[in-house]
Amino acid sequence: MSALAFSLLGYSNHPALYSIGITGVSIGCTLLESSCKALIGDRVSDKASRELSLYCRYYAINAGGAVGPLFGVTLGVGEQGLTFLITAAIYFIYGLLLWRLLHYTAWRDTTPKQTKTSSPSFFAAWGQIIRHRLFAMLMFCNMLAAFVYASFDSTLVQYLTRSDVPNVMLLIATLIAINALTIIIAQFPLLHLLQRYSTGVRLMTGLLLMLLAQLLFAFSPVTQFYILAAATIILSLGELVVFPTFSVEVDQITPNALRGSYFGAANLSLLGGALAPLYGGLMLDFSNHRVLFLSLAGLCLLTMILQNVTNMMKREQVK
């Protein structure tokens, strides 16, 4: 689906076609995200290895996210359609490789001792997900965290653009590069430092870092590049802890037969990232940047409180 959607974007010359293409890209990415997480959970039996695989997956996505936009901007200046077609070709090749790998592993894992487990129906699966209070709380916390983090990609850009900063595009590009480099360089060293702690403690640590970043954004002048850069680094450190750890948490509380359904439902947390630009624009229109980022810091604090409740619920469930 993603390959077809990017191909459509490559040949589009009408807003309606662009809308269809973007919708297809979004649906394809969502299906791919949940399916890959579920496959990792199904194929990697060891808990520690499965956790590391989820972190590696997040690292690979961020590495591609750092290189992809740079490649797209460089090539897309003169050949916008070609950029989309190259992306479609990459998705198509990836799909073929993934199909071949799954076909091979399915053949290799087939043994006479295997017993086929019956999967629940669609409505039964969603009924169980809705009744799972721990998962609902975890997903809500993830949604709030996504809402806060999305302010970096959208609201901060709006704020800097409206502030009449000299060379604003260079400033924005530099902050985005700092964000990507921090994630690529720091993910595994930070993971090594936090591996002795539970996933609940890691989430609280990451959320605290995101809160501190919002406070720095709130009180730093737009002319102070080094403060903005420090806030970006702190936010990036929080991001690389929070979001892959949420995936690990979902994997830990998910029944084996419903792993795909749970990861699919967890994608509802993306709604937070979708609403963030609207909220940020309204706050900048009717208030100022300080109120905006302080409200996001307050939202981080609320998320930490809810996450603490989630941690207590998980401990009680284990008992």
UniProtKB/TrEMBL annotation:
PROSITE patterns: MFS. Residues 134-319 form the Major facilitator superfamily (MFS) profile domain. Its main location: membrane. GO terms for molecular function: transmembrane transporter activity. Keywords: Cell membrane, Membrane, Transmembrane, Transmembrane helix, Transport. Signal peptide: none annotated. It comes from the Bacteria. It holds the Pfam family MFS_1. It is a multi-pass membrane protein. This is Putative major facilitator superfamily (MFS) transporter. It comes from Xenorhabdus bovienii str. kraussei Becker Underwood.
